[in-house]
Amino acid sequence: MTSNDELTISELFDFSYDLQQKLETNKIEQKLETFNTAIERLKLAEDKLDELHLFSDNEEINEVASNELRYFILYALIGWLYEYRSSNREQRLDDIHLSMSYLIKYLQLCKNYGLVKQVPIENDDDDKEKFRLHATQDRQAKIQKIKEKKALEQSITKLREMMQDSNRVDDETKRRLYLEQIRWWIKQAEDDIFELKDEIKLLQFAKNPMPPINNSAAATNKLPIDGPFTLVTTKDRLYKEAVGGAGYPSVPTMTVQEFYDDLARRQAQQPVPPSK
Fold it and tell me: Which GO terms describe its biological process (predicted)?
């Protein structure tokens, strides 16, 4: 039986990429062991890539061979696996930081090759305004980004179908597929990084919640997230709601602070039950 250390970069990457795709589309059960296996093999592939110095800061994207170009998204895949791996609250914070670290590493690699202009910083809240496509942004800008991502998905699907036909597979087709995947993961990584930043703040707030709020304190107590938010949502639901529905239900209607202020006011108006 071949050990993981004896597997080639291609074997490690292809096996893990296939697992990630099945996990993302719910084609296999979301088991912790499956996530860990994919992460372990991708990290081995990462070590082998580092040993070969496959990517350089001193070359252009058109200088990278097509067969090597597909490994570009390796960091993004590891980041995704950490982001969606099921874990308890204590481990969740560690997984978030690991996910952000790999997603930022991916964007930095893309920046080195001129594919993105700027890379967010994990511990810098100020860069939110530069990178984040949030609900407070112009509605048309948000819809436009979703349409661009959808167009990339359609292009990737078409190119994958062409790759399955041995008579239509050539270097140009492979290269187009890998570049489209890189562009899709750039958009995904940028969005995920700032969602994870918000989740960090919510987890930290859950550990140290505010003291009981009264009417006078409601105006001064600040919560960890500024700006509009959606209380209960998923990425799939956000995606579907953003592109359909006249009411555009994915746009939040109040900030976190406004929500808690309103909650405090309603609680203050409730009658105090008589003492027994």
Answer: regulation of dephosphorylation; regulation of signal transduction
* Domain residue limits at 259: 210-264
Q: Within 13 Å, how many C-alpha atoms sit on residue 233's CB side?
A: 18
Alpha-carbon separation of residue 31 from 44, 82, 89 (angstroms): 21, 13, 17
Q: Report how many domains make up the chain.
A: 2
Please tell me the pTM assigned to this model.
Answer: 0.73
Residue 109 lies in a domain: yes
The residue behind tokens 């003291």 is 211
Q: Which of 231, 230, 213 is nearest to 222 (CA)?
A: 213
User: Of 180, 187, 97, which Cα lies nearest the Cα of 142?
Assistant: 187
Residue 266, burial from CB neighbour count under 10 angstroms (0-12, 13-18, 19+): exposed
Burial class (CB in 10 A: 0-12, 13-18, 19+), 86: exposed
- The rounded distance, in Å, linking the Cα atoms of 158 and 149 is 14
Confidence of residue 176 (pLDDT cuts 50, 70, 90): very high
Tokens of 142: 């948000």
3-state DSSP assignment of residue 228: strand
Residue 92 counted as domain residue: yes
What's the pLDDT tens digit per position in 235-262?
Answer: 444 434 444 443 434 444 555 555 555 6
Whether residue 58 is found in the same domain as residue 123? yes
